[in-house]
Design a protein that fits this description.
Elements: E1 3-7, E2 13-18, H1 19-25, E3 28-37, E4 41-47, E5 58-59, E6 62-65, H2 77-83, E7 92-104, E8 107-119, E9 134-141, H3 142-149, E10 156-160, E11 166-169, H4 179-188
Parallel strand pairs: 3-8
Antiparallel strand pairs: 1-2, 3-4, 3-6, 4-5, 4-9, 7-8, 9-10, 10-11
């Protein structure tokens, strides 16, 4: 059974608790978020259709829970697990902690998201996706995605890096992070 560290809303550690209880009761916990970027594009994942939460929606390039036995730095494992990329912590740029609440009927997720950028160029062949987690990786022009997150535009084009299939996406196609989270990420993208 996965256990997570539980915090108060000031990010003060309280106790360890099972993941099921954390999500059922909407307790604050830590996550690792890494956005892969290059000079022009942001790489976003499309979640697997079999994911329990938010299947088939677009999201952070790689993200996951930080277990009770782990440090924030250990969250880097998510990049290799989900994307097949071996990355050293020194290659990431920490952008700080962002509080992110997703509240839907019957669902309350309260995260202290430890956000990182990984700036590099990525060939499609570099990725080896964990199919039960990630359906595909897409590129979106960096400034356009930031403008979408700031609600300055309503849609952006993106392309699947494996087959270059193009599509247009809106915020409704993303996991419903709160507005403040998207706005802070837009700033991190240099907008």
């Amino acid at each position: 059974m996965e256990r997570l560290k539980v915090f108060d809303d000031s990010y003060t550690y309280l106790k360890d608790e099972s993941r099921a209880i954390v999500h059922r009761e909407g307790l604050w916990h830590e996550t690792f978020h890494c956005w892969l970027v290059d000079e022009q594009f942001v790489y976003i994942q499309k979640r697997s259709t079999t994911k329990k939460d938010f299947p088939n929606l677009f999201d952070i390039t790689a993200a996951g829970h930080i277990l009770a036995t782990e440090t924030v730095a250990d969250g880097i494992r998510e990049i290799e697990e989900e994307l097949g990329l071996a990355v050293a912590l020194s290659q990431l740029s920490s952008k700080g902690v962002v509080q992110d609440t997703i509240e839907l009927p019957g669902f309350l997720d309260r995260e202290f998201a430890n956000v990182f950028l990984y700036e590099s160029s990525f060939a499609p062949s570099a990725f080896s996706l964990q199919q039960e987690e990630v359906a595909s990786i897409h590129i979106v022009e960096r400034q356009a995605l930031a403008a979408l997150f700031l609600r300055e535009i309503t849609a952006v084009p993106c392309a699947n890096i494996a087959d270059r299939t193009a599509t247009v996406i809106t915020l409704a196609d993303f996991v419903p992070h709160e507005r403040a989270y998207f706005e802070q990420v837009a700033g991190m993208l240099g907008y």
